[in-house]
Amino acid sequence: MGKETLRQHASRMRGHGAEYDAAIARLRDRSGKWGDDGLFAAIEMAWGEARDSMVAAVPALGGAVTGVGDGLTVVPANVEAAEHASRLPETDPWP
């Protein structure tokens, strides 16, 4: 995979991490109340429990995805540094 392709995918991964974070923020903001007269009370309660579980569990996923993007950014920089170092002349050749 080319270095520029890695940079593009790194940017996309960081974008996906931000999307996860934004989705959790929206989920956190929802009260779960549907304005129901009690007919769907059990469903509303289950939705609230599921929402609370997701709000507790998913934030780490956004950070992990963003971390993958950050790591992908480092790879091409390391490859370029290694390529540059391999072109430098030896200042102290082995005897």
Note down, in words, how this protein is organized:
By secondary structure, the chain is mostly helical. It is 77% helix and 0% strand. It has three helices and no strands. Helix 1 crosses helix 2. The chain is rod-shaped, with a radius of gyration of 24 Å.
What is the structure about, briefly put?
By secondary structure, the protein is mainly alpha-helical.
Query: What is the N-to-C succession of helices and strands?
Result: HHH
The overall pLDDT average reads: 81
Decide which structural class fits the backbone. Answer: mainly alpha
Beta-strand content estimate: under 5%
Sheet of most strands? none
Report, as a whole number of angstroms, the end-to-end distance: 38 Å
Helical stretch tally: 3
**Would you identify the regions where 5 or more consecutive residues have pLDDT less than 50?**
none
Helix share of residues?
over 70%
Work out the number of β strands.
0
Task: Give the SSE layout.
Elements: H1 3-29, H2 41-57, H3 59-87
Helix pairs in contact: 1-2, 1-3
List key phrases describing it.
95 residues; mainly alpha; 3 helices; rod-shaped
